[in-house]
Amino acid sequence: MEIELRKITYNPRLDEDSFAANIFINGQKAAIANRKNGRLLYYAVDDRGIDLVEQAQQYLKKQPREKGLIDGKEPMISDLLSDKIEHLFATYLMAIERKKFDKKVELMQKRNIVIGEPGRYMRTVPTKTQVNLLVTEGYKDLILDILTNKVLPSMSGNEKILNTNIPVIILKETGLKTEQYLITENGQGAKKTQKKSQGIKP
To answer: What is the CA angle 38-41-45, rounded to 5?
Structure first.
């Protein structure tokens, strides 16, 4: 069963604990959710919505879930759909924060090698010259030197190179392992796929 939130209204400047959204169940608008002052309420939009909400509740009861303890006792779960709505909204907020993070990486990677953990933190190693120029054949030795002697020795733990403007072939030449850099559809390796994206769709 597919349960999703659509047309989410959220303004953290006014109230970071409040939001409103339409609840869609199996592709049909079934209910409206509204959280205000930390209290989440939802109500079906029509008789069909009532049926869909009930089906969703029954479906969620059958799904595996983690059981936590409060004061040594298992808490009573009165409304699984409310929990699902809260989870979907939290996922929505995480996606917003990730977009902000990725946007900052996109800006910083123009003149820096960006290192960090995706969506969590970043740090930079300046290149002084635009990275898009350094990855060209005439300047490749410069970026290889930066990656090999400044970036790679400083990386630790789960850190990755977050740049999406350095072809994979250059990253591999430095000895970086696959898990030490990102691979995205329009990022690393873009030099190879750029022509295809500008042509006629297959």
So the answer is: 150
One domain, residues 154 and 133: yes
One-letter identity of residue 99? K
Which contiguous run of DSSP H or E holds residue 80? helix 80-108
Per the structure, the complete domain to which residue 132 belongs is given by 109-198
Which run of H or of E encompasses 22?
strand 19-25
Q: In whole angstroms, how far apart are CA 81 and each of 29, 32, 36, 84?
A: 15, 12, 17, 5
96 in Cβ contact with 102 (< 8 Å): no
Q: Is residue 164 part of a domain?
A: yes
pTM score of the predicted model:
0.73
Provide the 8-state DSSP code for 70: B
Nearest Cα to Cα of residue 173 among 148, 190, 149, 153: 148
Residues 86 and 121 in one domain: no
Q: pLDDT tens-digit profile of 96-136?
A: 999 999 999 999 999 999 999 999 999 999 999 999 999 99
Give Cα separations from 73 to 54, 65, 68, 69, 101 (angstroms).
Answer: 28, 16, 8, 5, 39
